[in-house]
Amino acid sequence: MPTASNALPGSTGDAIRADVAVIGAGVVGHGIAWEIQRSGRSVVLIDDAPGAGASWAAAGMLAPVSELHYQEEDLLDLMTEASSRWPGFAAGVATAAGAGTGYLTTPTLAVGIDAADRRALMDLRAVQQANGLEVQPLTVREARGREPLLSPAISCALDTPADHQVDPRRLIASLRLALGGAARETPELAVAGAGDGYAVPERAAGLLWEGGAVAGVRLAGGGTVVAGETVVANGLHAGSLDGLPDGLELPLRPVHGDILRLSVPQHLRPLVTATVRGLVHGIPVYIVPRQDGTVVIGASQREDALSDAVSAGSVYQLLRDAQALVPAVAELELLECTARARPGTPDNAPLLGRVAVSPGSRDPGDGHVPGLIIATGFFRHGVLLTPAAAAICTALLDGAADPRWAPFSPDRFSRPAAAVPSPHMKETA
Amino acid sequence: MPTASNALPGSTGDAIRADVAVIGAGVVGHGIAWEIQRSGRSVVLIDDAPGAGASWAAAGMLAPVSELHYQEEDLLDLMTEASSRWPGFAAGVATAAGAGTGYLTTPTLAVGIDAADRRALMDLRAVQQANGLEVQPLTVREARGREPLLSPAISCALDTPADHQVDPRRLIASLRLALGGAARETPELAVAGAGDGYAVPERAAGLLWEGGAVAGVRLAGGGTVVAGETVVANGLHAGSLDGLPDGLELPLRPVHGDILRLSVPQHLRPLVTATVRGLVHGIPVYIVPRQDGTVVIGASQREDALSDAVSAGSVYQLLRDAQALVPAVAELELLECTARARPGTPDNAPLLGRVAVSPGSRDPGDGHVPGLIIATGFFRHGVLLTPAAAAICTALLDGAADPRWAPFSPDRFSRPAAAVPSPHMKETA
Fold first, then answer.
1. B337 closest CB neighbour out of A309, A330, A334
2. Which residues have C-beta within 8 Å of that of residue A101, sequence separation ≥ 6?
3. Do residue A312 and residue B319 have CB atoms under 8 angstroms apart?
4. A332 vs chain B: nearest CA distance in angstroms?
């Protein structure tokens, strides 16, 4: 139940009004907003720092094959679905924006350094093959024929042709052009009071309620957005929104990652043509080549207290392990060290869908909270999963829920409301 | 001989006029300008990017003992002279500015990792002792008693109590306050047309001549500074000034250095209390602790083509070797990676003093070019040598040349003018 402060005010004369409000302007929020706008709905995207969260650090690997982990087959289905949507999604954004996204279908090479790395990658290949995924072992000579700067000391290399890449910063820039362009060209899609007809550069403080339905967003600056549907896509911050449905648990935790951007001197270009994903004495590292002559090296996974601070130990380890794969990394120019937190969940899968009226009741007859969709907890997979999340959210607006995605229900970690003390009930008592 | 374009224009009505013009606003140029201003002369400091060159990267170690190299005893005299001036210089700046410089007399600890490092440090100690410098071996237990976060795997530690530090960025900020404050308080020191009464934020293009004397500076923007004396203190750029005396060779070369700034988490403070200078399998690295809870780790020496670009290989090596000395470096936050070029000379000693009318003639009866002092080529020692350079330049303005500093004559690499083709003579022919 909402508290009084979250009730839709009687007079909302100054409110921004849109068909749909999307909270959170990372890659996922941008992709969802664009797909919703394409479905003919007016949309606002609410964020005081668009693209500055986990998306700012993301390498943009689109790697359903390499990212397969044991016993995460549900997630594999979602990743495969997303992967199949990427060509059309990227082409659509590029056409609408008149600008590219850095989407490249160059392959990925999985590389190990020692015998244990080789065994781990071959074991994973067995799982990948069992799931119908193509992973082809190469000899070291074949691998170095393709990528001459690979170290001769590698223990194995596997070609993974289905794992691709996009440039998340370019993707967001193009999605912004596409969103603004559509609002400019189609008056009924333009939202009055929003920048470029769609952008609300403010922090979302909480959800607004009217009756038993979510009716929009309360902004930290005091304003309101009135919307028929609200999508919560602000990553780690989703759990701290005010006015979430009672009993809904969003168990998000920050998993920090450090990532490096480097420039390849002319005489070493291209450093590599494929994305190189290494296992270096058991530690993962990747090198993603961009079209502009830079490479991205990542990424650590830390659950320590450094927050968005860059870890000296992680930078050291990334440079050490990347040099083990490609020794010429030592000769690159270090442009940028960035750290951000990814929104992790207990099962490494997203929180995606509508919320039951009694979260956690597991009663199939239970209806959903009207006006609310959750789309967060994408952890390491936010960029890859964006086209799928966008399609799923848009289908939910149309009333079409695909049972394949039921495992990602955002209230799967919630207990029945009666079993937990409700902070809102306490506040209103 | 000056060319026509370097001749003092007949009408210099719009010129900035000062007793002394200093070209180059690094630590050295600032220090010289301040000392000259203190001597009662009006001064301008010409630079379009004050403090942004080698000074921006400098760690600020004041280490005459640790920086002693074999067969550089002349330089040792100058470093010792500078070191003895530092307490008074730092106190004077701080008093005049009403702001500190980060000058600290905490000791330096020289630390080796393997047996060869130990031998190298003990050999250097013999040279240091032969020159009357105090370097005291400690047991590893004693060293770790003082610095508990030192690695237990070090092979030796030597206490060097006379090697201190300053914060170059704070020093420049305070020197700017001091220069501006004096110009504000003493009208005859304020230069009309200069910012804060002393700053000319433009690039110097060349020297102006009148008769056989340097008469000021031509600015890249077209303006002029007319000054009775000009000090050339713009580091690597000194050699490319237009209108240098015919035959004067300033053989400066860029020696790039990468340096890191890191923040120490509260629970690890202080990481170290002394400056730690390590020799790690023969490679030098240092860790300089600042009062604000940060540390500086440096510095590579590269003569490659990366210019002010940060070398990934150097960052890796600095973090690797700093961790060998103090493993907890891995837990620090990496704030900044910076690279700059130091102005190296063939004998690693500065180019400091007046220039003979016939550079390289070695004729003791030869006079000096009036109105011109050179102060560049400080290589790794710019910050340490600043108070000495400032005192030497000011003494030269007073007509007092100390024969101890004759070895640093800026024309010591020049050949007699008749033996070299003069570009100026060609131009005017």
1. A334
2. A90, A93, A94, A166, A167, A170, A171, A174
3. yes
4. 6
How close is the nearest chain A Cα to the Cα of B345, in Å? 25
Of B263, B316, B337, the CB nearest to A323: B316
Whether the CB of B336 is below 8 Å from some CB of chain A: the reply is no
A155 C-beta neighbours (distance < 10 Å), count: 16
CA gap A230, B295 in Å, rounded: 47
Establish, for the pair of chains A and B, how many residue pairs have beta carbons separated by less than 8 Å: 77
Nearest Cβ partner of B334 from A311, A320, A332?
A: A311
State the nearest Cα–Cα gap between A18 and chain B, in angstroms.
42
Collapsing DSSP to helix, strand or coil, B252 comes out as: coil
- Helix/strand/coil percentages in chain A, nearest 5: 35, 25, 40
For residue B193, which phi and psi values (nearest 5 degrees)? 90, -5
On whether any CB of chain B is under 8 Å from the CB of A175, the answer is: no
Question: pLDDT tens track of chain A, all 429 residues?
Answer: 455 556 666 555 589 999 999 999 999 999 999 999 999 999 999 999 999 999 999 999 999 999 988 778 889 999 999 999 999 999 999 999 999 999 999 999 999 999 999 999 999 999 999 999 999 999 999 999 999 999 999 999 999 999 999 999 999 999 999 999 999 999 999 999 999 999 999 999 999 999 999 999 999 999 999 999 999 999 999 999 999 999 999 999 999 999 999 999 999 999 999 999 999 999 999 999 999 999 999 998 988 766 789 999 999 999 999 999 999 999 999 999 999 999 999 999 999 999 999 887 767 667 999 999 999 999 999 999 999 999 999 999 999 999 999 999 999 999 775 544 444 433 333
B262 touches A: beta carbon within 8 Å: yes
Q: CA-based angle B88:B91:B92, to the nearest 5?
A: 80
Helix segments in B167-309, DSSP class H: 168-185
d(CA A71, CA A80): 15
Judge whether A310 and A256 are in contact, CB under 8 Å.
no
Beta partners for A310?
B334
CA distance A345 to A255: 10
Predicted TM-score (pTM) of the model is 0.90
Residues of chain B positioned with their CB less than 8 A from the CB of A331: 311-313
Shortest Cα distance from B198 to chain A (angstroms)? 35
Closest Cα in chain A to B314: A330
- Say which amino acid occupies A183: A
Confirm or reject contact between A260 and chain B (CB < 8 A).
Answer: yes
- Alpha-helical (H) ranges within B11-164 are 27-38, 54-57, 73-97, 115-130, 140-146
* Set of chain A residues whose Cβ sits within 8 Å of the Cβ of B315: 315, 319, 334
User: Residue B313 and residue A331: Cβ atoms within 8 Å?
Assistant: yes
With H, G, I as helix, E, B as strand and everything else as coil, classify residue B62.
strand
Rg (CA), chain B: 22
* Closest-CA residue to B147 (of B101, B104, B108, B175): B108
Report, in angstroms and rounded to the nearest whole number, the Rg of chain A calculated over CA atoms.
Answer: 22
Nearest CA to B258 out of B185, B330, B314, B180 is that of B314
Q: Work out the minimum CA distance from A260 to partner chain B, whole angstroms.
A: 10
DSSP string, A346-407: TTSS-EEE--BSSTT---TT--B-TTEEEEE--GGGHHHHHHHHHHHHHHHHTT---GGGGG
**Which residue out of A315, A329, A331 would a mutagenesis test of the B interface target, given it has the greatest number of B Cβ atoms within 10 Å?**
A315
B46 vs B232: CA distance, rounded Å:
10
Contact A334 B323 (CB under 8 A): no
